[in-house]
Amino acid sequence: MSSASPSASSEPPAAPAMPGEAAAIHRRRWTVLGVLMLSLLVVVLDNSILNVAMKTLARPAPVGLGATQSELEWAINAYTLVFAGLLFTAGLLGDRLGRKKVLLAGLLVFGAGSVLAAFSAGPGELIFYRALMGLGAAFVMPATLAILMNVFPREEQPKAIGIWAGGVGLAIAIGPITGGLLLDHFWWGSVFLVNAPVVLVALVAILALVPDSRDPAPGRLDPLGVLLSVAGLVLLVYGIIEGGQLADFTDPKVLATAGGGVLVLALFLLHERRSSHPALDVRYFRKPAFSAAVAAIALVFFALMGAMFFGVFYIQSVRGFSPLEAGLLLLPLAAAQMIFSPRAAKAVNRFGAKAVCTVGMLLVAVGMFAFTTLDETTPLWRLEVIYFLMGGAMAFIMPPATVSIMQSMPTEKAGSGSAVNNTFRQVGGALGVAVLGSLLSTRYRDGVDGALSAVPRLPGEARHEAGESIEATLALADRLGPAGQALVHPAKAAFVDAMHTTVLASGSVALLGALVVAVWLPGKPAADAAGEDETGGEEEKAGVGTKR
């Protein structure tokens, strides 16, 4: 049996076996959302916690692990690689086996990986356990959104998704704060061990409160499609990561892996089009509400994740703030998302998804371009305004785009829809960090090279390593003592100049996203809605993502 066609998007979710059970689930739906957000919180929070622990992990044992720059990058990338590669498969398994079961299994794996990572004996072990955490997270993320779609009635889904998206923003911001507090008082492993009690609470709450759901007619398995999706995503993300690390996307290794990933994904799409039982019905991409929303999510995360990457270095390395202070400075970003995400549904009802998402994308671009006004002495209030603006802009993009994707698919395929949403977000973010990070690194090296060349008796290899990043340059300045202080100002100036170049590229990507949304995302169906009220038809009641 093949997957449901796009035209099935107006089908109501399968009713629970007993009316009493359905009523009970409906009464506790907001409590269920809180439990789902707790599960999501721990997965998202962990990544942002790790960002502030990088300096500590680079220090020799017992303070840190003595990790090299490459090892630190792979501590992040191992998680990203496994997470992105398995998201789609995890969504399919949730639809087939039951989303509650998959969510519980994912949290157990994530929690075990967190505890093991906390007691890693070296960088290699940490990288392996981070990959294990990515495996668990891949099963958690799509399950939370899929369960949400099955618990809430269609008219409440936009508001619930807005709160869900706001929780993601909150986790991104409180991660650095939590990490800074833990590193001020405990050893580096505490940033991973803190996940354990949160996971335990979430597991108990899920068992007690969250209902299970699955596709009642999943059809035959598509093992070839699943294998092609995993192989293609892993190769693509690995190539992106390698290109960012090498700062050269024309390197043969990068071209082979990323290009191979694109080729395998093309074969995946071709197979899905011809299969009688596809893992993903590619006809959904013919729907503007689906394809434009997917593109919007990928482009906004390309721009925003790149900005978060260089923003942390600007705050800590250029301005000299501690990890805890850096986390506190990110609070406006989270506050704006928490304030505006639940209100995005009202804006969409009034103005339509096209207008709301287009304005959001334009505001992201404005926020990016505003980074060009920052230097080494800029008042901090200006940075806080920029973060608040970007958080608010993201709040008016993610919820309506996510609603558009999820409501374009039948509810029984919610796991697959959630996986597509999160896969494009993850790939877009990985591309943003890799491409914009590469641009930042190249520009920075050009800017600081003159100052490094002026250092007497500095070997060529040491000069090359010191030019890799502002952290490497400042570390060299510390080792040189008073003589190295002459490098501090040129390093900061070179970074600020490189940041200005990078945000221009990032803002341009956001403008491209605004164009995509303005052209292809469906507008407000005002006339259709009026006709719907008169005829009593059901199709337009389905919302922004419904096929008309």
UniProtKB/TrEMBL annotation:
Residues 32-525 form the Major facilitator superfamily (MFS) profile domain. It is found in: Cell membrane. It holds the Pfam family MFS_1. It is a multi-pass membrane protein. The chain crosses the membrane at residues 30-54, 74-93, 102-121, 127-149, 161-181, 187-209, 221-241, 253-270, 290-315, 321-340, 352-374, 386-406, 502-521. CDD domains: MFS_MMR_MDR_like. Keywords: Antibiotic resistance, Cell membrane, Membrane, Transmembrane, Transmembrane helix, Transport. Residues 526-548 are annotated as: Disordered. It comes from the Bacteria. This is MFS transporter. It comes from Streptomyces oryzae.
